[in-house]
Amino acid sequence: MTHVFDTDDLSSCIACGFCLPSCPTYRLTGDEASSPRGRIALMRAVEDGQIDLFDPAVLEQGSFCLGCRACEPVCPAGVPYGSLLEDLRDAQWRGRRRPLRIRPLLAFAVRPWLVRLAGRLRRHAGFTASGAAGSGTGTTLMLGCFERVLFPGVSRAAARTLPDVAVPSDQGCCGALHAHNGERELGERMARRLAERPGRIVSTAGGCSAHLAAVVGRDRVLDYSEALLQAGPLPAPVLVHGRPARIGLQDSCHLRNGLGVSEPPRRVVRALGEYVEVPGAADCCGAAGSYSLLRPHDSEQVLAPKMAELVRLELDFLVVVNPGCQRQLITAVRRAGLRTRVLHLAELVELAQKGSS
Ligand code: SF4
Ligand code: SF4
């Protein structure tokens, strides 16, 4: 018999089906197998030895699932689905079975020196050189491995808008990417190493916040929006052509479904312009960590209804709170020719502080 899953987690599902309407892959296919309940049934069959772990149906559902955890907050039995999915991928994607496209990303993120070097090559050095001294609040800003490379302006904006938070230059990656892509133990080790420095950790990436909190405790982790609200008054609204900017928000799945943080970023945006709730803002944008790399067609299908709303709303800004969403939505908005500017919440706050758009 194969022991892959935490059996308490697995047995907590009462098969009620309340989670089905919240699941993006079930909404795409209408097929029970691609619903949370269907996937849990497959996991039970694997655990009971009725079906092989590498059966094509189990492999397909392990990969097709976005890992968005939208099925968790609606579940009356509190099934920790995200943890079950990590168990599944840990077993299915181990070693040589790991998808080729994500191996370079994981190899990059596990090497702190490489992450730091890449950040410096993005002219980030002047910023990271502030070192670990900080202001004495005991709170540090996590720079994030891919954010540092893809969106260095986000960490810079977060540091400028939270001046009392220290920015250690010797930090590595939190391991979220590893935990979600078949290297659970390594991902947890990386989170513990990052948290060796005492005090709270502020993160600008929802996926990292949720992973860190799960490993080192919620009391150690602050989302950027929470830290900003604690820090004091917000700047005046951003104006576009003399009127308050029309601003929408895209939730981060893990921030909302894993950490329960959805209101703080909205409170910030409401203070900085005319807030427009994007229908389906809580639904996954299809980025989902490595998903858009591994399953680009499905990723686009998941994103399509959101893009239809964005075309209709004609926003000035669409705010994101996770770098994966930022990359996905910048690409899609550009491709659709929309005038909406996609930016991270920290960049919007920095813009408001400067007093212009
Ligand atoms: S995961 Fe939760 S909501 Fe979904 S079927 Fe199981 S118990 Fe019901
Ligand atoms: S994590 Fe997301 S895609 Fe996967 S089963 Fe849950 S709701 Fe569906």
TrEMBL record:
Highest taxon, organism lineage: Bacteria
Cofactor(s) demanded: [4Fe-4S] cluster
EC number(s) reported in the record: 1.1.99.14
Stretches that traverse the bilayer: none
Cofactor binding remark: Binds 2 [4Fe-4S] clusters.
Matches recorded under PANTHER family: ANAEROBIC GLYCEROL-3-PHOSPHATE DEHYDROGENASE SUBUNIT C, GLYCOLATE OXIDASE IRON-SULFUR SUBUNIT
Role description: Component of a complex that catalyzes the oxidation of glycolate to glyoxylate.
Protein name as annotated: Glycolate oxidase iron-sulfur subunit
Organism: Streptacidiphilus jeojiensis
